[in-house]
Specification:
CATH architecture: 2-Layer Sandwich
Number of helices: 1
Distance between the termini: 56 Å
Shape: elongated
Strand content: 25-35%
Mean pLDDT: 93
Helix content: 10-25%
Number of strands: 4
Number of domains: 1
CATH topology: TTHA1013/TTHA0281-like
Low-confidence stretches: none
Order of helices and strands: EEEHE
Length: 78
């Protein structure tokens, strides 16, 4: 079974960007304004970083992007 690489994305409220890091992909640290833009960046960055770190050359590199954002909302009072 092929390894699935896990990538964490957390919303940085101050910078207004999603920040991605991973324990599975050495050197991965990137950011983007949207999760979609972040995913597109990861499509190219993950294989490049794995190759740079000597990971075996494979055609497909599966990864799971786990996103987390803390928010506070308020109820409307009638």
């Amino acid at each position: 079974m092929q390894k699935i690489f896990f990538v964490r994305a957390e919303w940085d409220e101050e910078a207004s960007v999603w920040v991605a890091t991973s324990d599975d992909v050495p050197g991965l640290a990137t950011e983007a304004d949207t999760l979609e833009a972040l995913s597109i960046k990861l499509d190219s960055m993950i294989p490049e970083l794995l190759e740079a770190n000597g990971y075996p050359d494979v055609q497909e590199v599966p990864f799971e992007l786990l996103a987390r954002k803390f928010s506070v909302t308020h109820r409307a009072h009638g």
